[in-house]
Description:
The chain is about 25% helix and about 50% strand. By secondary structure, it is of the alpha+beta class. It has one domain (about 5-124): Nuclear Transport Factor 2, Chain: A. Strands 1, 2, 3, 4, 5, 6, 7 and 8 form an 8-stranded mixed beta sheet that branches. The mean pLDDT is about 95.
Amino acid sequence: xxxxxxxxxxxxxxxxxxxxxxxxxxxxxxxxxxxxxxxxxxxxxxxxxxxxxxxxxxxxxxxxxxxxxxxxxxxxxxxxxxxxxxxxxxxxxxxxxxxxxxxxxxxxxxxxxxxxxxxxxxxx
Length: 124
């Protein structure tokens, strides 16, 4: 079960923009991630590579300061809001809930919930 401090450390790492480092430091070796109802991705190394690839497709990824998160035993819920700037200057806002199951002080399973049809797109 993670401590409040451990979850806050994870959140701060993501807020700082170190998305890949957060995966490397806070996920179990056999962790899984799932987007909505898509098939889960399995394994920390694959998750880190997928994140690197996703970030490479963007000019900038900004994580807004987390306002809401919950911890209940091994379960954590975080409301992330990301501003993703494409190489064309378009900005998309992603507001999602991450439901996490922790194993000790690392994330074992994570599933993201968001309405992909409602991703807001703005011209920078």
